[in-house]
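Lab channel / #folding
Pinned by the channel admin:
"Please post every new chain as: sequence first, then the structure tokens as a reply. Keep commentary short and put observations after the output so the thread stays searchable."

First post following the new format, from NK:
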Amino acid sequence: MTTTAIRPETLAPSTTRGLLTCGILAGPVFVVTGAVQGLTRAGFDFTRHPASVLANGSLGFLQITNFLVTGLLTIAAAAGIRRVLPGRWGPRLLTVYGVSLLCAGVFRADPQDGFPVGTPAGPPASISWHGTLHFAVGGLGFAALVAACFAIGSHLTPARAWYSRLSGLLFLAGFAGVASGSTSPAVTLGFWAAVVIAFAWLATTSVRLMPRGESR
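Reply from TO:
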């Protein structure tokens, strides 16, 4: 039977708790910031636009900052998980995802389908170099996140392991939909849901691994 193997020497340090708290915060920071922008910025439509396009326009710095902050929180969470679980690959893969979020903030996605206001309808007529890099690092990061769900799950109890695997598979399904090039509202909303599922997994896993007891 697979069980959660927590290292005795790292049961209760405050540093580990702080790092894992970053994993709890990453999802709310990213999702709430993206949702507020989506609801308040003219031309944005949750059924047509991914969060990435919010990095464009006069307020694009908000989403760029969102990517950067969430990336740093995710990397910190990976460091916390590394201090608690014996496996190395899960935290490494989660770190790759965190780095991909940082890169997504540096390399903006191109405007598309009416956002920002004034952008022609439909996909971009041509993809810029930074748009190409955005998709490339995003694809790499998403693959690493799915793999991290399986790698980290392998060190958890059976129920938690299945939850980790299911979260990874659901995220993979959401990503596969948008990667196919489909512009269906169901696919776009499905990817938004997949992002929420993935960050919920990170938050609940961080809570589960949070050391108990007094600080050392």
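NK: The radius of gyration is 18 Å.
TO: also worth noting, The mean pLDDT is 92.
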